[in-house]
Amino acid sequence: MFDVFFSHVLKKVSLTEEEKSVLKSFFVAKNLQKKEFLLQEGEVCKYLSFVSKGLLRSYHIDEKGDEHMNLFAWEGWWTSDIYSFSFNETAQFNIDALEDSELLLITRENLDEMTLQIPKMDRYFRILFQNSLATKERRLVSSNSYTAKEKYIQLAESNPQMIQRVPQNLIASYLGLAPETLSRIKKNIALGK
Amino acid sequence: MFDVFFSHVLKKVSLTEEEKSVLKSFFVAKNLQKKEFLLQEGEVCKYLSFVSKGLLRSYHIDEKGDEHMNLFAWEGWWTSDIYSFSFNETAQFNIDALEDSELLLITRENLDEMTLQIPKMDRYFRILFQNSLATKERRLVSSNSYTAKEKYIQLAESNPQMIQRVPQNLIASYLGLAPETLSRIKKNIALGK
DNA sequence: TGTATTACTTGATCCAGATCAACGGGCAGT
DNA sequence: ACTGCCCGTTGATCTGGATCAAGTAATACA
What we know:
2 copies of one chain form a homodimer.
Chain A lengths: L1 H8 L7 H8 L3 E5 L4 E3 L7 E15 L5 E8 L3 E2 L2 H6 L6 E14 H10 L2 H26 L2 H11 L1 H6 L2 H7 L4 H12 L3
Helix pairs in contact in A: 8-9
The first copy, chain A, binds a DNA duplex through α9.
């Protein structure tokens, strides 16, 4: 359970055995079955969650009832409604499991306490958030600047695993496209553009 | 020059006078005149920049030559091509000044060194990036989920200062709209929807 | 203080991608 | 093995916002 976690943390900061065991104490383990919810829109998001096994999705449902994917998180990724978690406001995202999953959860209070006890973890999360921000910034520009086909090709190149692992209709939603549109785009690409 | 800077840092972490003077030594001050560039697409972004006075914009230019705004930064905000800065890759954004501006620049090497000497700054940047990430995540969903009019109204409510301070055609670009579209939207709103 | 350049508006037309509709194929549960 | 249904495909049509075009107001600059 913690193996995947430590191997990820150790890529960014070093930890003693002592620190590792302190670290563990701030987390709670949770299993989630396929289709089970970790968070529902309207609640306050209490946890930052590390995925040690499985696959989760985070998505928003608009007034018309349409789903809009925010992100997918599998082994080695964190997920949360980070806005809700940070500012203690109502969540805008739902998070549920696309596959049976194993998680490590930490509350905001524990995160604060943990980083005070082990300041290196501020560095870990600083780097984590910095990298996520960088990626999200590029995705936002891509979303405003490119055609549907260009966006799909960019995604396929930058994140081929997502395309293998996540159903096509959810990929469409992630790109802000109708499922029919993505289907047609893939057909065109297969026919040599 | 550093007054605005310290007042912002102190909102998130406390600092001794000693630490303040150490902190200062890692930054370089820079003035930028209106229309002058801080960064051009294709370079590597060497600095994370704090705006102590003025207004900058960060934007991407696509193959057709169209500009797509990424963000605006005024007093108390940071700007950078964070992807380029973090991963030492070619910048995708241009950054230039919309008003005469005063900046504090820090290199990646100095940022790393500074956070090692003053670990509290890891916490400062952890919180900064966490908040930016939260905001960007919401903006991305908004961009994929709402109509042009809804996006404008949301922006006007959540960030009225931006609308006052930034020219309308740049706001349009920030929202991923043609300037004509935003003009019409504002007209409709003025006419009572 | 005049003129040039840039910002904003308004109208007419166009198009990428959404929506609606119908069908086939795979796989999940009994 | 059967059946139900979810998922992807394909076709036909519609539409929000882009694009093209022209005029007007505002700001800068000399």
